[in-house]
Design brief:
By secondary structure, the chain is an all-alpha fold. It has helices at residues 2-11, 35-55, 62-81, 84-100, 105-121, 123-133, 139-157, 168-171, 190-222, 227-244, 253-277; strands at residues 20-21, 25-26. A two-stranded antiparallel sheet has the order 1-2. The longest helix is centred in the last third of the chain and has 33 residues, at 190-222.
Length: 278
């Protein structure tokens, strides 16, 4: 998938016409029709790869080279897809990992501190970042703020049951005032997505599952069991959640499968650790 995206960047092969931008070059899509679908797919897989890269206790061999190369290609792919959500989610997950891991805590905290100092001391950095977050200067941010505003109004009126499975596009029609863009399939926010699709009960169950996932992960890390797998799924889930703040990382068949693979890997490590105890 990553190799195809990189080839697209330099050849334009199979890039949908709407993702060609004058002066900016094209946004790659891989085998998908939308750049963000590519990034949503690759992001959690990159987290799984990082677990292997950081915690497999072996010298640099062919297998580890494969993991590193695959991660690098995937990062290039999301960079060429120009998916800002993924480009924030992957480094964000790495920084959280760095703060949680004792060996890298000081380094991560130092990098964050340097970043904060640069933000407040270098006006160009501050203005560049603020412009990317300003709806009046960033079309993507503007669209999302409109979607969230409309979705919030709809959910306030349908707070218990939401819109129902695949019901968002129909339910949002009376609330869609920004007629200069189309109605999207989902609200582009993980919380609103589950609330709309599965109602308040479904949202609560999903959040409970996520919390339990991180609690179980923490327990396994404390026991130092299956670290390459546990840290891999933690990083994958962090990328999933962070990217999910501005996109819809679940209600698509391939993304749903990846999500449940992440859950299943942790469950497998947990069951295996219990077998070891007995």
């Amino acid at each position: 998938m990553s190799v195809m995206a990189i080839v697209q960047r330099f050849t334009g092969w199979l890039v949908p016409y709407q993702y060609w931008y004058l002066g900016e070059g094209q946004r790659v899509t891989g085998f998908f029709g939308v750049p963000n679908f590519l990034s949503l797919y690759l992001g959690p897989i990159m987290g799984l790869l990082l677990g292997k890269i950081f915690f497999v206790k072996s010298k640099i061999d062919k297998q580890k080279i494969f993991y590193i190369l695959t991660f690098a290609l995937a990062f290039l792919a999301i960079f060429f897809a120009k998916s800002e959500g993924a480009l924030v989610a992957v480094p964000g997950a790495l920084f959280i990992f760095g703060l949680l891991n004792k060996k890298t805590r000081i380094l991560s905290a130092s990098i964050i501190l340097i970043g904060v100092i640069l933000y407040f001391s270098v006006p160009n950095i501050q203005s560049a970042l603020l412009s990317r977050l300003d709806p009046s200067q960033n079309w993507s941010v503007f669209i999302r703020t409109q979607i969230w505003s409309e979705s919030w109004q709809m959910l306030k009126d349908n707070w218990l049951l939401g819109a129902g499975l695949a019901g968002y596009q129909q339910a949002i029609v009376p609330y869609h005032t920004a007629d200069y863009f189309e109605i999207f399939l989902y609200p582009h926010n993980l919380i609103m997505n589950f609330w709309s699709e599965m109602g308040l009960a479904g949202l609560i169950l999903f959040l409970t599952l996520i919390i339990k996932f991180f609690v179980d992960s923490y327990k396994l890390i404390k026991q130092k069991i299956g670290l390459e797998y546990v840290w891999g799924v933690i990083l994958a889930m962090l990328i999933f959640v962070i990217h999910g703040l501005v996109d819809h990382p679940y209600f698509k068949n391939d993304l749903s499968v990846i999500f449940w693979i992440i859950i299943a890997v942790l469950a497998w490590v947990k069951v295996d650790s219990q077998k070891m105890k007995t």
